[in-house]
Amino acid sequence: MCKTAIYQKERRCLVCEKSIHGRSDKIFCGINCKNHYHSEVRKITKTISAETVKIINKNWAILTSMMTKDYNQVTVKKLTLQRLGFDFGAITSVHSNHSFINFGIYNYIYYITKYDKVVIMRNKEESIITPFLFKRMLKQFPILAI
After folding, report:
1. Distance (Å, rounded) from C-alpha 33 to C-alpha 14?
2. How far apart are CA 134 and CA 146, in angstroms?
3. Which of 21, 33, 73, 99 has the most crowded CB, counting CB atoms within 10 A?
4. Residue 126's pLDDT band (boundaries 50, 70, 90)?
């Protein structure tokens, strides 16, 4: 008679490192560890979300200061925006046309030319969503805040 031993790696709780017994897909030793883990994940996600919205709002304020009421399009140097603290990685939308990729921040779109100039335009296609309206939407629909 040949007996085969089943080797099973000892599973440990993700939070407290205690040994786990029971179902093979169980990752927490109990409900307290599970609640603690998910609470921390929500905190981190909420913080990242708030920081991102803050950066996007700052970008919107910079674009608003560059635009005048008389013009629908303004061209500025990329370096000028960078010196004002503009973050080119934080956007609310991306649009593509035949020659450029347009990046959107609420009611503005911009694209970068090959000469490191940034062309800023008012976005006529989308409804105007300002940071103030966005914050109001977050209060009404908290699911948007992630």
Report:
1. 8
2. 14
3. 33
4. low
Q: Which residue has the tokens 């503005």?
A: 108
DSSP state of 19: B
User: In this predicted structure, what is the pLDDT of residue 2?
Assistant: 52
In 118-137, which positions are buried (b, 16+ CB within 10 angstroms) versus exposed (e)? bebbebeeeeebebeebeee
Q: Is 3 left (phi over 0), alpha (psi -120 to 50) or beta?
A: beta
Helix axes 131-140, 31-66, angle to 10 degrees: 160
- Which backbone phi and psi does 122 adopt, to 5 degrees? -80, 135
User: Where are the chain's structural domains?
Assistant: 31-145
Lookup: tokens for 66:
């560059």
Dihedral sign for Cα atoms in the order 77, 80, 81, 82: positive
Higher pLDDT, 78 or 4: 78
CA distance 16 to 105: 43
- Of the two residues 4 and 11, the one the predictor is more confident about is 11
Residue type present at position 30: G
Q: pLDDT digit string (tens) for 105-122?
A: 988 989 998 889 999 998
